[in-house]
Amino acid sequence: MALKSFKDFQTEKSPRRIIFPVLAAIVVVTILGFLIFSSNQKQPEAAEFVAESAPTPSPEELRQIQISELRSELALAARAQNREKLEASALALLEVEPEDGEAWSHLGRVQESRGDTKEALASFTKAVEFSDQKAFNLYLRAKLLRAQGDLPSAVKDLEEAALADPSSVGISNSLMIFKIQNGGHDEIRFLVETYEKTGINRNAQFWLLGAAAIAMQDGNSVRASRCLEALKLTTSGPLFVEMLADPFFDSYRDEPGYREFFSRPPAPQ
């Protein structure tokens, strides 16, 4: 067979030159088709996912969100000690959640501070009913009852508070002072003597204020000072000042034997 000339090689179409473009076209069409198909399939899935991940909140869920926001506002007003904002925040919260004990407690303290004792008592009663801090709110109501001259009811509240929170040094000592003022001098004297005779000194901080009060009434300033000094060493500074701010001690503040204990200004009521 005669060899083909160089010109014949140039003009002849090679099978490879035909196959490669066809294959490339097939690949491009396949890729484009796949991409179009995938795009059409994913769009409904994305829309469905968005719809499922963001359901419309129920009315109760919206209410709980609002309550959370109002409680945050109440806490900020309490930290700022802004009575006007505190009252406004408490009232706004109670309008949405009438059983919020903390709001009732704050409202009662604001009302008491401006002399609205009847309203304050009602608020503290609600706080006792709904708040997790029952003992503290019983203590607040007891102080207000005593200020109104109702010592028997005040003592009853503090007895209940002591049962609700037996670890409270402040409530335990306040109960002793209230009982002394309510005519229970002999009862407290007997309790203190019993504690001392039986050597119950590990928990002396729970009754030392009562012991000091009895000694003051007896005119025994040495014993009273010793009890107050022991109480000062076994309790925190702020609590010690708050307990001695009790009106019971007003007539003793200027006596020389007690001045060192009453030298700091009383805690705010």
Residue stretches low in confidence (pLDDT < 50, at least 5 long) are 1-13, 265-269
Output the structural class. mainly alpha
Strand content: under 5%
Please bin the fraction of helical residues. over 70%
Q: What is the helix tally? A: 13
Terminus-to-terminus distance: 124 Å
The overall pLDDT, averaged over residues, is 83
* Main pleated sheet: none
Number of strands: 0
Radius of gyration: 40 Å
Order of helices and strands: HHHHHHHHHHHHH
User: What does the overall shape look like?
Assistant: elongated
Describe the protein's topology:
Elements (H helix, E strand, L loop, with lengths): L5 H6 L3 H39 L5 H22 L2 H14 L4 H13 L3 H14 L3 H14 L3 H14 L4 H13 L3 H13 L10 H11 L2 H14 L2 H8 L25
Helix pairs in contact: 3-4, 4-5, 5-6, 6-7, 7-8, 8-9, 9-10, 9-11, 10-11, 11-12
